[in-house]
Request: fold
Amino acid sequence: MIPMLAKVSVPDATMFVVSAAIVLLGAIGVVLNRNPVRGALCLVATLFGVALLFLEQRADFLAAVQIIVYGGAIVVLFLFVIMLLGVDKSERLGRDPLSWQRFLGIVAGCLVVGAILVLAHIAWATGTKSVSGVASSKTVPNINLLATSLFTTYLLAFEVTSALLVIAVVGAVLLARRRTVVIDLDGPSTGLPRDDDPEHGGGYQDQTNPDPDSRGDLDGDNGDRGDRDDLVQVPEGIFEEHASGGHGS
Amino acid sequence: MLHSLAYIPGFALAGFVIVLLVGSRLGDPKAGWVATLAIAGSFVCSVLTFSGLMGRTSTGRSYVETLFTWIPVGSLHVTVSLLADPLSITMALFVTGVSTLIHLYAIGYMKRDRDFSKFFLYFNLFVFSMLMLVLSDNFVLTFLGWEGVGACSYFLISYFFERPSAATAGKFAFIVNRIGDFGFLMAMFLLFDHTRTLSYQGVFSKTAPPSCPSGPGGTLGHCVAQLSSGTLEAVCLLLFLGAVGKSAQLPLSLWLADAMEGPTPVSALIHAATMVTAGVYLMARVSPLLHLAPVASWVIAIVGVTTAFVAATIGTSQDDIKKVLAYSTVSQLGYMMLGVGSGAYVAAIFLMVTHAFYKALLFLGSGSVIHAMGDEQDIKKMGGLRRYMPITSVTFIIGWLSIAGVPPFSGFWSKGDVLDGAYTKSPILWAVGAVTAILTAYYMGREVYLVFFGEPRFKEVALNHGGDASTGHGHGGEPHEPTWHMWVPLVVLAFLAVVAGLLNLPFTSGLGYLEHWLTPVFGTTHLALSTSAKWLLAGSDAVLALAGVAIAWSIWRRAWDRPELEPNFLRSSWGLYKVYEYLVSKPAQAFANFAQATVETRIIDGTVNATGGLVAWTGLRLRKLQSGYVRNYALAIALGMAGVLIYLVVRAG
Amino acid sequence: MTITASWYLVVAAILFGIGAIGLLIRRSVLVMFMCVELMLNAVNLTFVTFSRTLNDIAGQVVVFFVLVVAAAEVVVGLGIIVSIYRSRRGTTADDLHIMHG
Reply:
């Protein structure tokens, strides 16, 4: 494979190698970083690398959208939720509480990648043409081609995606909405669980608690939960716990 | 009016549909009038068809009206087509005529019944089915009517279904008739297997032997022999099994006695005048086959005469006014079968027609007696009703003399014809028939004397039933004549019972109207009897009938309780119920117990429980797979994906 | 001469594998979500590559739709996470297993 690269012009090769390295290293960073904030930043790197690879393949518009929508909106949304909920703590990565899960997961992932690579050599795409037109032209810019296709052939799908986005917004509002908002003047200490409470914080704590079943699950929660649903104060509660937990990395 | 044929059952069907749709809204008595008019319409159509046939020459009096194709399956091609020939029109005439009268009677009898319109619904459906049975030109359509009348009979026997005995009697009748249906079906299968057709004409055309003797069915017979005599015998015996069930011949007679649980008009119409004669009609219809099946004919004659005798003996000892009539019906049906078995088809049909008149008359008379007595049916608790119910008693006595065979009433002529036929077959058959004739006159005389003569024994009974007057049953302490709806049919039927003998007088051949009329169907039947022998037989018939009447007069004129003349053996119907019990009920009960104890609990429950247990056991073990961890499920997906990809690699490589 | 499509596809395959493994071994719901995004990006990359190879704009159209759907998915998914966290602070994916058999 290296000889194949050798035939390519140096700037192209350099561009590809660098962006591929960004993509893969960023991806590894997402998976291996214990801190979700860092993971999110690594995700940005990966998305940026993918945008570069798009650019190399003359998908100019998509490269821009990748940066703006993915790198901008989506990752910011991630970070926002992380900050909002105060989960920017390390996850213990030492040993998976589900036996065989990590081993089998890695095996399955490698098998998939290996099989894809093998298949890529022996059975390639069929190359059947679609109805939507060419991807690059000497005269028409990429964005015009894409827009023409979107607003003619794929107009219905395009409209449906707009409906999907509206539905998603409505759904998100519905999910995140509170039933009642109660200002708890006594402060969050009464209702909120402590971070050192083994019932709740186990997944993010450093102390070893290998048995997953001993952690609380949704149905194992006891009486104080009903109150808490109503009494939680988002900013104070999170920040207070933040400060007291002190597990940021 | 050649095309009025389809209207004959059509009117009955229309009546059924109308009563079905709006009957309960019409209510009492309008629904009854609608039903009665529908059947009257059928009767008028029958008369028109009859006159149409009369206008033809005697050989051309047969045509088929095809309505539509019913079952086109392979080589089986069954049409709904009606056959008009002298036999079927004779049947249609008396079925619709008697039905009209009984419908009219029922308007009065069923007055204030809760389900007034339902009764007429069944009644019209019954008449429709009966007409399909009679007018059909093929076995399958006849079977449809056959089952239709059976179903209606079941509905009507169980009409008072709140009464357990009525419900049981209905089931009994239904089940017994299934045995007969089995025979009918088997006969049809056999016929179709051998002749590839099920229409009467098609079947008959394959029966006549090559030599073409002056045999059956002038219009129907053709000289193509395709049915072996063994097949013919089998077919005739199987059809006779059907007739045994429907016409209550031995050993399947008892359901008819139990069928008296139904309302009295039902007993009159279905279980005396029309439906039970369907078996006889069927045998007459297949007379071209029967003619060639001597063994089956003998079996029919012997079963018929035995039934006639046994039922007559049982009739001498019954106390229920309707049971006596029921057994007398069985006995008369036995006579008809005797006629059929002896080859005297005309005599059998003649007896059927006259029997329809006088037996309907007797049943309707008994109905008005029951009505007057406040639903009392025990003749031991009646007596002296002659003074209270003159019309009923006179007409009932006419019916009695007619069934007894006293000249010149119609029964004398028709029964005499049957006995003549039996004599030509075998004097022994005649002898048994003659004894039965005495018994007939005797037991009917007993009933007449117990009900209408002697001292009234119902004073206390009537008092007991005094309460009925306040509950609106419509009679006070004394019995009285019913409304005109009920006595008009009695008078008409009594008139017919007297004069119906004119249909077929034996003196000269010119007077045998019915015989001439039916000749195209049955061929000319030559009775091998000299004129003197005929006169001798007729004279002895008259003497026997009068002897029976005289015996009844001498015994029952004054007495009303003679236990030595009513032995328990006869009261209990020759122990036939016991025979049924030990042959059918007990084994069936034992089998049911076995099935309940072993098959049900062990095998069926065991299978069901084992299936459930297996599922539960499997589920208990499989639930461990459901860890609830999303990542585990994702892992399963990933492993599956890897498996699919590896499979692709292996296949591609 | 530009880079052949194979190289892009190799990168995409590896990226997809890393995402899948991350999804399987991480317990934080947020990180799992990010891994899903990695896998989506791998697929997007494949689409764009084939779009170029086959000179067909349809691949890029699909990527556009994937972007939209991914955005919607993230919105709803994060909404669910927020509502879960509201009642149970510090929940991991493993804690949510009340549907176990």
In short: Chain C touches chain B through 14 residues (CB under 8 Å). The two ends of chain C are 57 Å apart (CA to CA).
